[in-house]
Amino acid sequence: MNAEFLNLSAALPEIVLLAAICCVVLIEALVKSPRKPSPLTLALLAMAVPAVLLIGQVGLSETVYAFNGLYIADPLAVMLKLCAFIAVAACLIYAKRYLADRDIPESEFHLLALLSLLGQMVMMSAGNLLVIYLGLELMSLSLYAMIALRRDDSVATEAAMKYFVLGALASGFLLYGLSMVYGGAGSLDLVEITRRFDAGLANPLVFSFGVVFIVAGLAFKLGAVPFHMWLPDVYEGAPTAATLLIASAPKLAAFAIAFRLLVEGLAGIAHDWQVMFLVLAVGSLVFGNVVAIAQTNLKRMLAWSTIAQIGFVLLGFLSGVIDGDTGAVPTAWGASLFYVIAYVLTTLGTFGLIQLLARSGFECDRIADLKGLHTRSPWMALAMLLMMFSLAGIPPMVGFYAKVAVLTAAVEAGLVWLAVLAVMFSLVGAFYYLRVVKVMYFDAVEDDGEIVAGGGARATLALNGAAVLLLGIVPGPLMALCLEAVRVAMAG
User: Fold this and answer.
1) Residue 330, preceding peptide bond in cis (omega within 30° of 0)
2) In degrees, to the nearest 5, what angle opens at C-alpha 205 toward C-alphas 209 and 203?
């Protein structure tokens, strides 16, 4: 087996991250010195070298293959991985005091977060059906265990069980769909699957059945209606630190496998999966926004908000292939990629702020808990205002430009009625986002407990808020990167 066949350099960030995780395990188990670095420091150091290696891959202008095509390094994978690194690092910084106040084992939490990150990286670079499933399970199993770390809390244990059931259903649907695609094409390689389908060597009927299960599995992972089921219960019941990890970086990985499977592997039957995404998008936009209005629990409201936001992401998915022509894929899927990044950035800020406001014995998980926040901490209230405005799509926040990009792609695909529907329910969504702003700025203070936040968490929140604002004012460079990443990935 020669070096050209392996091409380990393409997968070097993942290899180094795995080695770093093993080192962290050994240090935590064997080093008893009181001068040992904190679990957070060890986790951030473990992420540092792989992040530098990823930055070194930013200049890629074409797709590079490793392990005989099993693994892919292209601009899309590199971009998604860097975003995942930023998201996970921010999650860990936000969680530092939250974990300590609740006696959640920090070492185990950080190790599980690193393992979930490794799984996400594998998903983002998968060029083979089995590699996709391997990455998915590595990410999912880590997240199941993370939610259950608070063993003495019955609500967290229930959330872990529900998330496990949801994940098992998603994995089962996806695996069955992948097995049918393999049966129809006779190959596990995404490039080979496309080639055989285009050459008429694959069974389109089996492909169509397989794509039904694949889309269902993806819908579970994304949290789209009607596969959302217990998602609000999981968001509410899980420790907020775990909720943030569930709600952020895994969405980037879900985008990656959706693109790899549906665009790179199954673009030939786009008319089948686009119809399904149409139903999922409409259901998510309608139910997500309407049900969120009735919520008084902040984390449940954000869960239903997530479901509504996924409706917009799916809107971009179904706008890429027009009458069998994939020419609009870079524009439509690039807009969805921008939307996912904007959503993750905003989610980091919202749940990060909830953690900073929480303290021992107080979760800050009700909308009423934010009453008078402007009086208690003006800059934290401003940060939350920026996040709510972005989620609502109010200019000049990044969420506004993300919505415009996706709606433009839908209109260009001839889905004007769907774009109008999305705008209408965005207006519905603006109600519950602005309600949070109203509570912070116009209601009298109910909780006057001291807000204690470390310097690192405060700096992260400030950068988070600044990014949401600046990327809305100057969205061009990030959008150009998204479009180029999808275009290069399409060219393969």
Assistant:
1) no
2) 120
Token match 């693994």: residue?
71
Place of tokens 């021992």: 360
C-alpha distances (whole Å) from 436 to each of 247, 249, 310, 343 are 19, 24, 21, 18
DSSP 280-313: HHHHHHHHHHHHHHT--BHHHHHHHHHHHHHHHH
Angle at 61 between CA 60 and CA 66, to 5 degrees: 55
* Separation between Cα atoms, residue 237 and residue 99, nearest integer Å: 15
**Separation CA 465–CA 459 (nearest Å):** 10
242-285 residue pLDDT tens:
999 999 999 999 999 999 999 988 888 888 899 999 999 999 99
- Residue 466 CB neighbours (<10 A): 12
- Domain boundaries of the chain, sorted by first residue: 3-491
Report which residue type is found at 169: L
Rounded CA-CA distance 343/352 in Å is 14
Count other Cβ atoms within 10 Å, centred on residue 38.
Answer: 12
* Residue 427 CB neighbour total at 10 angstroms: 11
| Percent of the chain scoring above 70 in pLDDT | 99
Helix 106-124 × helix 75-101 angle, to 10°: 170
Nearest CA-CA partner of 190 in 133, 136, 139:
133
Residues 6+ apart with CB under 8 A from 334: 405, 479, 482, 483, 485, 486, 487
**126, β-bridge pairs:** 71
Q: With H, G, I as helix, E, B as strand and everything else as coil, classify residue 322.
A: strand
CA distance 391 to 393: 5
Length of the chain counted residue by residue: 492
- 3-state SS record for 368-384: HHHCCHHHHCHHHHHHH
How far is it between the farthest Cα atoms of the chain? 70
Residue that has been written with the tokens 């800020």 in this structure: 349
* Residue from 296, 308, 317 nearest 347 by CA: 308
User: Look-up: residue for tokens 């694949």?
Assistant: 214
Report which residue type is found at 461: L
Please calculate the CA angle 10-480-195 and round it to the nearest 5 degrees: 50
Q: Bridge partners of 65?
A: 72
Residue identified by tokens 């998008």 is 281
Its pTM surpasses 0.85: yes
pLDDT digits (tens, 9 = 90+) for 418-462: 999 999 999 999 999 999 999 999 988 877 777 878 889 999 999
Work out whether strand 64-66 and strand 71-73 pair parallel, antiparallel, or are unpaired. antiparallel
- The answer to whether 440 and 362 have CB atoms below 8 angstroms apart is no
